[in-house]
Fold this protein.
Amino acid sequence: MAQILGALCSSHVPAIGRAMAKNLQQDPYWKPFFDGWPPVHRWLADKRPDVAVVFYNDHGLNFFLDKLPTFAIGAAPQYTSADEGWGIPQVAPFRGDEDLSWHLINQLVAEDFDLTTCQEMLVDHAMTNPMHLMYPDERWAVRIVPIAINTVQFPLPSARRCWALGDAVGRAVRSWQSDAKVMFLGTGGLSHQLDGERAGFMNKDFDLAFMESLIHDPQWATQFNTHQLVEKAGTQGVELIMWLAARAALGDGATLAHQNYHIPISNTASGVMLMDAR
Amino acid sequence: MAQILGALCSSHVPAIGRAMAKNLQQDPYWKPFFDGWPPVHRWLADKRPDVAVVFYNDHGLNFFLDKLPTFAIGAAPQYTSADEGWGIPQVAPFRGDEDLSWHLINQLVAEDFDLTTCQEMLVDHAMTNPMHLMYPDERWAVRIVPIAINTVQFPLPSARRCWALGDAVGRAVRSWQSDAKVMFLGTGGLSHQLDGERAGFMNKDFDLAFMESLIHDPQWATQFNTHQLVEKAGTQGVELIMWLAARAALGDGATLAHQNYHIPISNTASGVMLMDAR
Amino acid sequence: MSFDIPGTTLFDGAQARKGYALNKMCFSFNEAANRAAFLADEDAYCAAYGLNDRQRAAIQARNVLDLIAAGGNVYYLAKFAGIFGLDVQDIGAQQTGMSKDAFKAMLAAHAK
Amino acid sequence: MSFDIPGTTLFDGAQARKGYALNKMCFSFNEAANRAAFLADEDAYCAAYGLNDRQRAAIQARNVLDLIAAGGNVYYLAKFAGIFGLDVQDIGAQQTGMSKDAFKAMLAAHAK
Ligand SMILES: [Fe+3]
Ligand SMILES: [Fe+3]
């Protein structure tokens, strides 16, 4: 049976990619953010995961409003990034884990998750930036299974539904006949808002309470409906549902291995959180 | 509140379209099939539905394996048919009911249905043929909301899940603030198989039992998993889950208004069934 | 995943993985221009979609059972058959090794 | 559906219906060739996507609040902003009526 190592949650804003491209890691603006990553690198070197199941949200690269899935799962041999409208440099392609993709699809559909399956799929900065932060040399040591959750168009799936998705993914991984070591990745957040007169909104108290809850009361955030999450975390802060799904996949109990929180990077309160499975 | 009139279920095989194009309604081969429709025409003239929510399956026109949804719902002002590979003549475009589309999307996502929403959508023979049978002059008297259920790639949603979907759609329509008269349409089946050495398979006993069950024991078919349905009804006979969803949308109790069953049209056991809501 | 319904291959993940290039090509046949391009230069068209040798041979043979074994899905294959004006009874007859008339008689016999 | 979070327009069904043509155009800006085509002939490009007058005016004014009011979704609008090299702090400053420096100072102040 596959072994679950832990979960990593991280912000994914496009500016991270630009900062890495320009080698700004030691720049005073960026240093407090990048200083959050060496403990993650040590963890990866120590644990050596084989596969990462990645909960993230597409920002209008692979999906448009003509076919907008609530939950989409990749089942491709390879995933590539692409120009998202800003001419950003592409990163090396990611290898998929088709065995795990189809195992998850079979298990999740049987549990009444109405997935959209993708045998071909472009992945955007929400995939590339966290992966690049994990592996700065772009030598991806993990195969991936991307799971995209809609944050583009309301109604979004509720935090409660995203918890249930993550929980089912975790159970499916535990039943996977493989000797692979699996980690979960949740990318997005924390509090930020890009649009409207409220642009620039952040909520440090809420973010810290949310991060704390993942260890001691992990379903805490499922009490909030989507509108409440927007109110507390901003229109893009709702991306915290990716963190929630990744935490849910760990199952009962998780221990904090590392965390970092910093305001601001770009328009965002950034968070990094690494949890070991129990 | 919107009023629910009833549900119509029907086969949708491409050959029907060809027969209509060639005016073969009185041809000895086709007459037993087309003779099933005048009672439906009388019902439509009498009840005058304003909107049809249509459960159907796409056969590789609007969806491909790069983005294949389990449940997709249209939210477009208009839906057009298109060449499906055979150069068939197109029919007049269908008017959408966007108000109902979004009402359903909001209600269903809140009930944990993980929909793929489609603001642009081509509809294939599974939509055009039943609509053309209902309105032979191509003057569609109803606005439509298409709901496409995956029958292309396994795992399919279970019969039980499709019943739950239909049930939730029915409840959502009943809560819709509108004076519209709504009907449901379920298209597909009955028993048939196009592929493999088992091509040509049909199962009259099972079909008749299934049709009977929709009146007296409507959840009967939910006892079967997808593999059992393939065994009993053929690889394409699983399209009966559209009938099941349409019946579920009627809620408790339905009375039989009319039915017709005929073997064969094309490779298919054809069924037509009209049920009044109670 | 193997299945115990004789003469039946369910299009599951294993088939979908195997057949992606083939099905993508057949999906393209929704458009008349693509059907014409295939007929104009079958080799080039198959190469552009990256068909493997087995898929290429099955396309060349117009053999539905071989196409299914190579990962083809009947919904997309039907669009390939459409290029040649074949309907579902033609492909049913081919797969069952019957003449079309015999296949149609078999279908009609289910009415009893 | 109106919402009681000040300064916030949720992109719901009502917005999605209103903004489809605009968002479809902005989605096309994922590709460099389309960005160039827009810059080469803005009027023709907007006309090809069927923008209404309000959307056309908001595009012409490069005004984000107007674009949102016309049904634009920030994820697609960001691709439009990208054509002009504007980042999220530029559009944040524009929407809040601040200078970019003032907007950045406001962001930093959240750290306290
Ligand atoms: Fe984001
Ligand atoms: Fe069909």
User: Anything to note?
Assistant: The first strand of chain B starts at residue 3 and ends at 10. Chain B has a mean pLDDT of 97. Residues 174 and 233 of chain B are 32 Å apart (CA to CA).
